[in-house]
Specification:
Distance between the termini: 11 Å
CATH architecture: 3-Layer(aba) Sandwich
CATH superfamily: Thiamin diphosphate (ThDP)-binding fold, Pyr/PP domains
Largest sheet: 5 strands, parallel
Shape: globular
Number of strands: 7
Structural class: alpha/beta
CATH class: Alpha Beta
């Protein structure tokens, strides 16, 4: 787990390089979601370039598609494409590595980023799997600000109704969105009780940037029968450097040279600390 945690910080460095090179990107949410993606892609899901066309592969949709830089970094490390190519081409004219997930790229199931679409689409994928007696699982990651979209709750209602125990939805609960605190913009109240009321099993992860806790939650979700599971991962927006952490202004921002150097130094220090624990 320490190695995967250290990997999360190495991949954060790829994200920062991507955003600086491409002159744009949603850096705050990239940093909060990283351990969730690393846990899923390196510990949990039956997925990879060698089985990209296997009908029994697990399905994943990054519903909060604006955090695509973290997604590209993880997919590249998983072997779907070359990270240096991503960094060089990200957000450039004519590039396939655009600012939201692009299903013309290997490993990406669907275009996303129009918030509120991931859960209802994954509900359909999971329902199809059930009806076809397939063995795959379906995962989606949503932002907490995204939960203001009504389509999320339509998907949640349907998933509960059809008892889709092959579906796991993860909420990146960093409590910040583009215009400020989620509780000020559109209060979340009690997400645990909300999902429970739609017929879901709910797991709260106190530290959603702790890979061991995330894996414990995903292991539990796999054992649940008769209903879908929601994992509420309490994360830190901008995780990895005090320059960015818990600051709404870093939702979408390109670091200055001075900020870049400090962020990279902070990420290196945290990576090294994990490697030498």
């Amino acid at each position: 787990m320490e190695n995967l945690s250290a990997l999360s910080y190495e991949l954060r460095k790829n994200v920062v390089d991507m955003i600086v090179e491409g002159k744009g990107g949603h850096i705050g949410g990239d940093m909060s979601v990283m351990e969730i993606l690393v846990a899923l892609y390196f510990s949990q899901m039956n997925i990879g370039p060698e089985i990209a066309d296997d009908p029994d592969r697990d399905r994943f949709v990054l519903s909060k598609g604006h955090s695509v830089e973290a997604y590209y970094a993880v997919l590249a490390k998983r072997g779907f494409f070359d990270i240096q190519k991503v960094i060089k081409e990200f957000s450039k004219f004519g590039s396939a590595f655009i600012g939201h997930p692009n299903n013309k790229l290997p490993g990406i199931e669907m275009n996303s980023g129009s918030l509120g679409h991931g859960l209802p689409v994954c509900t359909g994928m999971a329902l199809a799997g059930k009806r076809n007696h397939a063995g795959y699982r379906v995962y989606t990651v949503m932002g907490d600000g995204e939960l203001a979209e009504g389509s999320v709750w339509e998907g949640a209602m349907a998933a509960g109704h059809y008892h889709l125990d092959n579906l796991c939805a993860v909420i990146d609960r960093n409590r910040l969105q583009i215009s400020g605190s989620t509780e000020e913009v559109m209060g979340q109240v009690d997400l645990h009780k909300k999902f429970e009321s739609f017929g879901w099993h709910v797991i709260d992860v106190e530290d959603g940037n702790d890979i061991s806790l995330l894996n414990r939650a995903f292991d539990e979700a796999r054992e649940i029968k008769g209903c879908p599971t929601a994992v509420i991962a309490n994360t830190v927006k901008g995780k990895g450097s005090p320059v960015m952490e818990n600051k709404a202004s870093w939702h979408h921002k390109v670091p200055t040279q001075e900020e870049y150097e400090q962020i990279m130094k902070d990420l290196d220090q945290r990576k090294e600390a994990l490697l030498h624990e």
